[in-house]
Amino acid sequence: MMCVRRGRPGAEEDIQTMNTWFNKFGFATPSGQCIDPDGKEIKPALEKFRDQINQSNDDISCCLITLMSHGREGGYILGKDGIGASLEEIFPLFNNVLCPKLQQKPKVFLIQACRGGKRDAGVSSTDQLSIETEDNDDVDEIRRLPTASDYYVVYSTQKGYVSLRNDVIGSRMIEIMDQVFSVHGMEWHIGDLFTKVCTQQIW
Amino acid sequence: MMCVRRGRPGAEEDIQTMNTWFNKFGFATPSGQCIDPDGKEIKPALEKFRDQINQSNDDISCCLITLMSHGREGGYILGKDGIGASLEEIFPLFNNVLCPKLQQKPKVFLIQACRGGKRDAGVSSTDQLSIETEDNDDVDEIRRLPTASDYYVVYSTQKGYVSLRNDVIGSRMIEIMDQVFSVHGMEWHIGDLFTKVCTQQIW
Prior knowledge:
cysteine-type endopeptidase activity (chains A, B); Rossmann fold; alpha/beta
């Protein structure tokens, strides 16, 4: 866990909450306490954590990496000196080549940070809610929604990579979707369907 | 549904498969048949589709937008003339401001396209599989994995936007995680937990 405290009141509360859940879920924390590094120390700290995992003799079923700090547009998380580290360079540190110990194990990243300076003013919902106040008058209140919500985007490949299509059968993702939907399409939640489509493309 | 056929053998099979599932799931297709546009026609075609949704008197429970074509690094999907349209400009066409009819309804995007030119050579798994061949000899086969798999990344905000943190309580996402995990943390799948965290941040 990394948490930058400087200029981030509320950080201690986040650390406390995360520690509670680390304990409840039985996560070990080989890198010791929460770190609060400079920008250039972020990647080496994660590499050290990764190497400890690789060298461990224990069975490891899951890895949770929590990064809480200021952030900047373009995928940067900042150290306490305001210097950024690129998330696109951080994620691969734990891939199947560099972290064989975590092959086929979930690698969960929690990124609590800004991703730019835009603020969403939201939009009035077309729904109206009647709510009861303490003196029991009905008051009409208009819900506000974020500008964008309820999106579910499925890509056939990872960012930067080619996508597979067979000249005779058609695209690989569509083929696997067809297989998975044929068995589970009328019963499962869309999230479970596409998790299955994703894993089935790997094997 | 959009599907570029030029230089994409197998495209007809994809269209057929998708049409089967559009029908099975009972999707109406107000924009008619599958389109095969030039690059500059993609956004106007989607705007027309969106306007038909907005003007519909029917209840609409879900919207599925399937875009199948060549693609290019940086988030571009190409028309049949090779001119690209930016996905970052396409997604907002259906947001809560521009498409009020779909407020609180799932907007599902299937993007079957390349996202760059990289090819993943993969990595040998640390597992070994014994498989039986037709003549019943046991053969050791080494599984190959993609370089990156089993990642689950949670961001506290949308790309480009600020993230909320209360000076006293701590970060909004961590606060909601704590609430959701307290009720469901020991029972639910991680995907369901963070779907709940996401929706609870909206309301």
